[in-house]
Amino acid sequence: MSNNNLIPHSPNNKAIACLHPLWHAVPPSGAHFNVNESNAEIKLVHLRMNSHLAGFEFCYAIVERLLAKYEQLSFSYYSNQLLMGELDHHPRVNRKKVMRWAKYKKYFKRFTIAEQCYHLALYPIVDTPINNSRSINKILETSLVGCAGVYSDSWNYAQYIQHGTNGLSLNNSVELWIDEISRLIDPPDALQALYQGSVTNFHQLNSHQEQKRFWQQHFVGVV
Q: Phi and psi at residue 106, in whole multiples of 5°?
């Protein structure tokens, strides 16, 4: 399983191990951060889908206020349904369709093009059973689309986020999220520095060697 929180809910007569996800893709270069252009577009994204409804509700006020505050800001999310209320009619809010897993993995190749990359991901972990079982994949994905993430500090894997170095780890206060994100936008080069930290974090967490060791220990070694 991919989250230690699931272990207490597993059969106690079985050997249980935690295995983190692994990607064979690599994060983009960071060329999409146009720090010398004061009016360059800054793209926020919420990568999660319909199972993250509580997160969308939390994001609404944050996105609404930031769009009003910064004309260069846009927001994208992935869903086959309209989930952002009145904001779905906003000219700088983009909804993209959900993909099957195989297509989704191929989709990450598009982020080798600088114009396709995002600059900051919003990932609130509202206290729900589904959110409490999320894997560190949520950290890895943000780097693969070209950005660092903003996470709830109550999430058990927020331990991998060094606040201000490879992402933001915040309590679930709308005002706090708006204030901290605003500090990244003014000046925008702070977003680039945070992304570079997230890339370092990606390579530490996305360990091919650890994955190989796991399979050798739990399967190859017992066959």
A: -65, -30
